[in-house]
Task: inverse folding
């Protein structure tokens, strides 16, 4: 299971960092683009209103002709007028729907202007803000929040901001691996390797099992360690440092320059989703969320 409080905390740390340290640079250009877009939309709305008024006028004129007994009308003329009225009513309904459609970009723009005025208050009073207001502020700035689990013990987060100059923030978090199911083949690997082999050989043969899980399984299978595990060969000083890591976790950390024992988020302005997806294909059981 994903550690929701840790994910929440990590996101808020970056969110507040963006608000406090990187809000003003580029803000004026961004607001200018938003205001230009709003002006263009206002022009579109004015045109829709004009078309609706004109269509309503034509509809009423046609109804008056159809209802006036003093104007002679053939059957085909009545059908023509009725079809014209139906067509006008359909267009009016379509334009009114377009005019009244909720506009998230307008909502975002209002929220952004509010954020600009209240940055210090938002950060200081975040915990006291109503949930709806929190989500309004977050949604105004965040385009996508992507969460992946590339290996059993790593979470990959990618925040794609709506502000073009903020682009993307990515981070990796350590999480607790949960691979409780053991296959008969894995049990046989424990029986054959645990007693005499070093930690590297054992862990590479059981790549999604943490050292703690391997030790626990060996105890259940009544297999005792006869030689030293030699954690220094893997770059660790003790069992304590490696016990909650599996081989896939260690390799992932080495490849991406991560500290495997860090308890805090490790950030970069790079995409993490492609990295995570590449590692997801390595799972023999279709993912690491079990």
Result:
């Amino acid at each position: 299971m994903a550690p929701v409080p840790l994910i929440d905390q990590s996101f808020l740390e970056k969110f507040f960092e963006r608000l406090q340290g990187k809000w003003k640079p580029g803000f004026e250009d961004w607001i200018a683009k938003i205001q230009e877009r709003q002006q263009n939309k206002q022009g579109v709305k004015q045109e829709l209103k004009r078309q609706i008024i004109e269509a309503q006028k034509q509809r009423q004129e046609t109804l008056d002709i159809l209802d006036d007994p003093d104007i002679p009308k053939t059957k085909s003329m009545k059908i023509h007028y009725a079809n014209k009225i139906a067509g006008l009513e359909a267009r009016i309904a379509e334009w009114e729907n377009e005019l009244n459609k909720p506009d998230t970009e307008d909502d975002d723009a209002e929220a952004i202007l509010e954020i600009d005025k209240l940055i210090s208050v938002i950060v200081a009073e975040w915990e006291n803000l109503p949930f709806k207001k929190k989500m309004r502020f977050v949604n105004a700035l965040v385009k996508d929040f992507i969460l992946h689990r590339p290996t059993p013990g790593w979470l990959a987060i990618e925040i794609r901001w709506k502000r073009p100059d903020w682009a993307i923030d990515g981070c990796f978090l350590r999480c607790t691996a949960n691979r409780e199911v053991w296959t008969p083949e894995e049990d046989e690997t424990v029986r054959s390797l645990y007693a005499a082999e070093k930690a590297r050989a054992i862990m590479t043969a059981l790549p999604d099992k943490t050292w703690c899980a391997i030790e626990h399984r060996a105890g259940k299978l009544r297999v005792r360690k006869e030689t030293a595990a030699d954690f220094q060969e893997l770059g660790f000083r003790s069992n304590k440092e490696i016990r909650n890591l599996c081989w896939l976790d260690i390799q992932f950390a080495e490849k991406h320059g991560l500290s495997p024992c860090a308890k805090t988020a490790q950030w970069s302005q790079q995409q993490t989703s492609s990295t995570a997806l590449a590692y997801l294909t390595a799972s023999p059981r279709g993912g690491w969320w079990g």
